[in-house]
Structures are given as structure tokens and as C-alpha cells.
Amino acid sequence: MAKFKHFLVAAPYYLWIGLFVILPIGLIFIYSFHDLNGHFTLNNYLNFFKNSTYLLMAFNSLCFAIIITFISLIVAYPIAWIISKFQNSRDFLILLVIMPMWINLLLKTYAFIGIFSRNGTLNNLLANLGLGRHQFLFTDIAFILVAVYDQLPFMILPIYNSVIAINHSLINASYDLGASKTQTFWRIIVPLTLPGIKSGVQAIFIPSLSLFMITRLIGGNRVITLGTAIEEHFLSTMNWGMGSTIGVILIIAMILIMLLTKESK
Amino acid sequence: MSKFKNCFFLFFIFLILYLPIFYLIYYSFSSGNNIAKFENFSWQHYLNLFADRRLIGIVLNTILIALISATIATAIGTFGAIYLNDLTRPWVKNLILTLNNILIVSPDVIIGASFLILYSAIKLHLGFWSVLISHIAFSIPIVVLMVLPKLKELTRSYIDAAYDLGASSQQVLTRVILPFISSGIFSGFFMALTYSLDDFAVTFFVTGNGFSTLSVEIYAMARRGISLEINALTGIIFFIISIAMVFYYFGSQRDKKQKKVN
Amino acid sequence: MKKLGSALLGIIVLCSLLCIFNFNLNRNTSGAREKEKVLNLFNWGDYIDPSLIKKFERQTGYRVTIQTFDSNESMIEKIRQGGTTYDLTMPSEYMVEKMRKMNLLKPINHRKIRNLNQIDPLFLNQSFDPKNRYSLPYFWGTLGIIYNDKFIKPNSIKHWKDLWSSKYKNAILLIDSVRDVFAISLISQNQSINTTNLNILHQAEEKLVKLTPNIKAIVADEIKMYMEQEEGYLAVDWSGEAAEMISVNPHLHYFVPEEGSNLWIDSFVIPRTAKHFDAIYKFLNFMSEPENAAQNAKYVGYSTPNRGAKKILPQRVVQQRAFYPSDQTMNHLATYRDLGAKIVEEYNDLYLEFKMARQ
Fold first, then answer.
1. According to the 3-state scheme, what is the secondary structure of C55-73?
2. Which residue of B has its CA nearest to A7?
3. Domain B53-225: which CATH class?
4. Domains of chain C by start residue, with CATH
């Protein structure tokens, strides 16, 4: 009886899965087999795997996504750890991490353009220090920095959640048994926070494969990711078939990542 | 590691996180017209902002969409998560979780485009409703992900005890389950709010007929270079959020003290 | 549970407050809000003088709503989708041709347009819309080169092929637009910008790849900002954008290489889904009044096809060869044609390949 009632209240959720997950993915899948005139074709897939442009693009995106995810992880872990130590105000500090996300990304990107530009804050600072002016905008480094900035909260949150769930007696036990700090960290703390790390990686890696806006605004279109290509196919070349094909490939990549990072029980 | 070092590190990180925002606000007080050079101090852009009814209307729309979509998504997502947690067969659970996560990790452009195809198929008029429905749709999975861990902490015996004491299933839901997972529900709500306020790509695809949210408007403005009115708007939003934060902080400190006293 | 309930109550109260506030705001702005007294414009961003809209609303009592788009392609997608009711939009010439072929447009009744004779015949009866059955020219412009005289001596750069010079390493800001980028390469090789010959296209792409060491970034509207703030000193962009940059930074100069370039014409068209025809014709007539067209041209910065407006505009504006080129240069300009899906796909693939190339 209790079960039945639960099903009824969960009905909207299932309706949502059907309408907004399965149906759209089905549509994308169907579109990926259509050419510009709406006829059935396999050419989109052949084009992707035969054409060196797309393979190179996939490879580039992969490299950038790995770098962005890795840097985010390295930066986010200590942040989450330290915040968790502030027993009294840690909820508040986490809120402070989330808050910048409420200001539109496009605006923050414009701020970064101002900061990185030739006559911008950073260059003025460097020039005053006697280090000369440098080109920051439209470089890979600027692109990676802004991407990490954008994604960081999505990494901090899940790690923080798993850090505060750690039972501290386990860490004390490890010290009591004579383990060093590094041993305790790698053998006890990391495995205990692994679920958080995994969901953080999940939340960042795929979106990093498909960043767009900032590839143009900060990367000056010198960095082309799969996301840029999708955006281009959907918004400017109107080749929805090819755009959907890249989308299907991304969805497959995503499912692979989720399988790889699945909780092993 | 001393406490001082930790504080310093956090301060540095927050400085970087807030640097672009402070940068935007700083220039909102410039009398110039662009973000390149600070001229003189002036309230001009704030005055312009308050005179711009269209922009204020858009801000209200944005907040309205965010609040309504986050609330509905939280309701649907919470009950979805409760049911999901009760599923016994692991493969069904995994399948649904995978489907749930697809929308979180899919590129916004794909979500937007596929929703647009969907709405074309059912001939939905583009505007407020199409945007609202889309925001609810992409906020649901994050709510589920925020609520699920709390449900896992809630052990079966707790619920069984309630039943043994004669509670109806409705009572179990409202008196035991919901209060226990309320912190998860709140964080789900906040994340949904964040997603909605932050979204550009999906809204861009599914909006039409004069309805616009802040992010779409900013993108359209980008053509002539962002006007400093938008910076002033950032300043005001930031100010309001900061005040809310201060209230939240003191409220939570008081709660904790009370708990200690009790 | 109490906490959840009160939170929900709070949100509902907040939402209704917002709704009421929003409703009042709308009522105040629209004045007498009769249902059919509206005109829905779908326009490029910042492409009409807002004070003209106010004037039109005052004169006729119609309420104008404006929604903006950022590319011809995203515009046509919204129109094709059908869930929108825009009354007027302003696509570029090749998109007019495409929309015409896709039956997305309603013909314009020429008898209802009072000032048709004000439009320069140079821009009428073009191949993208013979006899202007569906379109009415709004603005026109060219593709050209902008440079900053602090970094580049005037007259040291004259032709498209000069862009390939090793002097300009990592310097050029290129407009992110397939046809325009190919036009640069095609014109510098003396080819038509509407070529459908795949060999020539591939050669054009190879030549573009050789340009990559000189390219600083391939961006869109931001070029204006970057050039004004001297982040870059050499760019390829449209004339109207250039006009705005020059008004901010007088060190900038714009020219159209005399060997040829693209001439583009943005035109008013009536989408199939339009509803308010009375308002549409009132607005078209209003905008083609020389006085209003001149005011709009002053605000937007692009060149007007309206002869009457050209007479009203200050002489120094009209005599600027950069924005109203000599007849000789005009003869070398060409409009883009819609080349059909297959060739367009080829252009797009090659363009992506070019963007990926890093030398």
C-alpha cells in the first residue's frame, strides 16, 4: 500500500524522465541519421570518424577537458577540506562558494576580458612591476583559467559533502596505528572521499568537453571544442544532423564516464 | 597547519572567486561608458537602471522564472528521489539514475535544441511557459542528486518504527521522511535556483515572442558592448544577496547557540 | 516540516508580489493596452533608434515589442518553428532568398507603401528578390578593413592580399562569419564570392590556412570593443561596426579595398506568421519617411538606401568614401547569393577546418 502511494507522488518525475530525457535523446538520435534535406544517411557518422578535422577536435577537447578537470580537482580538494574544518561557519562558507554562480557567467566573462586585455588590470599590474605587457587574451592558458573558474564550485560541492561525512575516529585510528600524514591521506581520506571526487569529475568533465561561449570570448575561437562545433551546427550552419551526431557521441562518452566512475560495490 | 594559514588560503580563494564581480561593480561607479577606463565617480548608471522599465521587467521575469521553476522542480525531484530510493532492483535504480544524470552533463546547446524540437512538435507557443517548463526540466535532476544522499542516511528501521507505532504512510512521509531530508531539499532548491539564474543556452533556444531573461538580454546587449547599466544591476543584485547572506549567517549562529543551550 | 511549509509559503508570497509588480510595470509602459494595437519586431541587437520607436508609438498608438537575434540563422529557426508571431524582421539578402524559397514570407503590397520611390534603385530588384516582392531595403553596408593609425601607417595597407604580409603576425581580428572570411580569400584570388566550384573553394581554404599565423582571434561583435580599446589594431569587419568604433576611437580608419568586396543589404520582410498588417504598413511607411530614415541612420551608423534621407544627412557623412563608396568601387561590390544546402555545407566544413588549423 505504501509503495503504491509513493508511485503516485513520483508520477510527475517519471513523466519528466519520459518527456524531457528519453524523448529528446531519441529525437537527437533520430536527427543524427538525417542529412540536410531530411533524408536518412550514415554520412554524419562517417564524416565524424573519417574526417581528420573532427577527430582532431575531439582530441583537443579531450585534452582541454582533462586539464580543466585535473586543475579543478587539485584546487577544489584543499578548499573543501579547509572549509570543512570551520565547524561553526562551514555552511556559510559553502554558500559563499555558490554565490558567485548567481552572477551571470557572460558578465563574469566580460570582466575577465577586462582583466586580461592588453591595457587591462593584470597587464597594468605587471607593467608597474616592471615585467612588461603580455598577450593573455586568446591564449590557451586564459581559456583554461576561466573554464576552471567557471566550473570550480561544481567540484567543491560534492567533495565538501563527502569530506564532512568522514568519521573522524577513522583518521585518529590511523594515526594511533602509526600511519604518517601522507599515508593517512592516501589510504584513508582519499578512499573515503572518492564518491565526492567521482561526482565532481562527472559534473565537470563532460561540460568541459562541450564549453562554448568562452571559447569565443576568451579563446578567440583559437580553441575549438566539440561544444563549439555543436553550437555552430545548431545555431549558424543549421546542419542539425551533424550537430546531433556530435551530441550522440558526447552522450556515449558521458555514459562511458559514468560507468568508469560508478561506485563499485 | 595553523588556523591562520587556513584562513589566509580561504581568503585568497574567495578573493579570486569574487574578483570578476568586484571588477564589474567597481566600473558601475565610473562616469565613462565602458569597462576599459575608470573616469569619475558617478551614480549615473544606477539612475539609468532605475529609469529602464524594460530591464527591470526582465529582471523580475528572471527571478520569477527562477523561483517558480526551482519550487516545482524541488517538489517533483524530492518525490522522485524518495521513490527512487525505495526501488529494490539495482539495475532499475542504476538505469533511472543514469537517465537522471544525462540532463546534468549534456551540453546546454543540445538540451536547448532538443527542447525546441519537442516544442515545435507539440506546437507550444514560445514564451514564458516554454521557458518555465524548460527550467523545471533541467533543474529536476540536480534536486534528485541533492536529496538522495540524505535519504540513504535515513535507515529503514527508523521508518519501520514509525509504522509500528501506528503512523499512516502519509504521516510517515510528512512527519519522518520530509523533516529528516529537509536539508537536502533546501540545498536542492538552492542548486535549482542557481541553475535557473545561470542558464543562458537553453533559454536562448526556447524563448520567443518578446519574453526575455537577463542572460539572454545580456547576450543581445553584447553586440554594442555591455553597457555599464548592467554593471550597476550586478552591483544591486550583489548587494541584496550579501544582505540576505548576513541575515542567514546570524540566523544560523543563533540557531546553533540555542541548540547548545538546549 | 514546519520549516518546509513556511519556506513554500514565503516563495508563493514573493512570487505573487513579483507578479503584481511586473503587471503594474507592463501596464504603465503600455498605456492604453488594446489587444490588437501591437507590432512585434524581431530585430538585430541595437539596430534601430529607440527614440524612433517611441515616436512611432506616440504617433499611431501602437505598442511595439522588440526581440533581438544575433544571426540570420537563429532568426530563421525561430520563424520556421512557428511558435512565434513576429510581424517584421530584417534578414540579410541571402537569407531573404532562402526564406523566400522556403515559403516563410508574405509578399509586401507595394501599393500600401508610400515612399517606395525614395529607395535608391541601386538596391532594388536584386537577384535575391526580383521586383522586391517580399523585401524592402533597410540598411546596406560593406565588408572592409579597419586599422589603427598608431600602429599602421595610412596607405601601407590597401588590398586584401596585404593581410597575408608577415608584418602583421598575430594581429588580425577576423569577423566570425563563413561567407565573409571566404570572401577575403576568394577576392584576393580574383574569384567570385559566390563560387560553387569546389576546386576553387579548396584553394581558397588553403590560402586561408596560410593566413592563420597572422590571425589573433576570430570573434564577432566583440571586435568593436577590442578595436576601441586597442587590444587589436587590424580587423576585418562590417562598415556599420566600423562607423561606431571610429566614433569612439578617432585613430581608427575603415576602407573597402577597391578590387572588390561584399555588398550586403538588410531588408524588412513579413514572416508568414505575422498578424498585425495594419501596424506593419504603418511602420514601414513611418520608417521610410526620409526624416526618420536619416535619424535612424545617424543612430545605427550603417548606410541608408533612402535617397531622401541621404539628402538630409550631414554632407560630411555622405561624402565619406568609406561608407558611401564611389561608383567605381560600388561596381566591384557583389551581394551573396544563397548557394543551396550542399555548397553551403561545403563552405561550412572547410571553414571549420580552417578554424582548427594552427600554424
1. HHHHHHCCEEEEEEECCHH
2. B83
3. mainly alpha
4. 34-139+264-318 (3.40.190.10), 141-263+324-356 (3.40.190.10)
